[in-house]
Amino acid sequence: MQSRFLTIFILCASLLVRLPARAEEDPLGSLRQLSNEMYRLSQEMITHGSEGHAHEIVSHGREMIERTETLIREVESSPLPALQEKKKAILASLKATLKQAQAAVRLGEQEKTGPALDASRKASFRAKQSRQQLQSLK
Predict the structure, then answer these.
(1) Which of these CATH numbers, 3.40.50.720, 1.20.120.660, 3.30.70.890, 3.30.70.100, describes 27-136?
(2) What string of DSSP letters covers 38-78?
(3) Using N-to-C axis directions, what is the helix angle for 54-77 and 113-136, rounded to 10°?
(4) pLDDT digits over 24-52, tens only?
(5) Does residue 104 sit in helix, strand or coil?
(6) How confident is the model over 46-60, as pLDDT tens digits?
(7) Residue 97 CB-density burial (10 A; 0-12 exposed, 13-18 middle, 19+ buried)
(8) What is the pLDDT along the chain (138 residues), one digit of tens a residue?
(9) Long-range contact list for 73-79, CB < 8 A, 24+ apart?
(10) Would you list the domain boundaries of the chain?
């Protein structure tokens, strides 16, 4: 009985020791997570916009804008060496994504579903590019 408890205790302790090490292995994790959320929201804009729901383009677009602005701030303030090399290109891509998302929201608010959907597609394309840039960092 004691040996089982000791074995379980050792396994749990080893997991607790390894978890912080894994978090340190991927310092870009939060940036990657935000880029994934940004891209997912852009896809939601397209999906619901295709169904003719301009209000969904606006709501998902606003969330996407928030995520993109947060991502821009994190990239600007990040001291990571892997990010420093491509910082300018990533920021340019994120700002282009933000501009397209803002256009989609503006058009969606005006109930111009067709143009808002086109802007959503452009925003999604830009979001995908930004996401790929961040995913490729090591």
Answers:
(1) 1.20.120.660
(2) HHHHHHHHHHHHHTT-HHHHHHHHHHHHHHHHHHHHHHHH-
(3) 30
(4) 456 778 888 999 999 999 999 999 888 88
(5) helix
(6) 998 888 888 889 999
(7) buried
(8) 566 665 665 665 565 655 444 444 567 788 889 999 999 999 999 998 888 888 889 999 999 999 999 999 999 988 888 788 888 999 999 999 999 999 999 999 999 999 999 999 999 999 999 999 988 887
(9) 74/30, 74/31, 74/34, 75/31, 78/31
(10) 27-136
Choose among 115, 114, 100: nearest CA to 61: 100
Interatomic CA distance for residues 90 and 81, integer angstroms: 14
Helix (H, G, I), strand (E, B) or coil at 137: coil
Q: Tell me if 42 sits within 8 A of 94, measured CB to CB.
A: no
Q: What token pair was written down for 44?
A: 């939601």
User: Is the pTM of the predicted complex or chain greater than 0.90?
Assistant: no
Radius of gyration of the chain (CA): 20
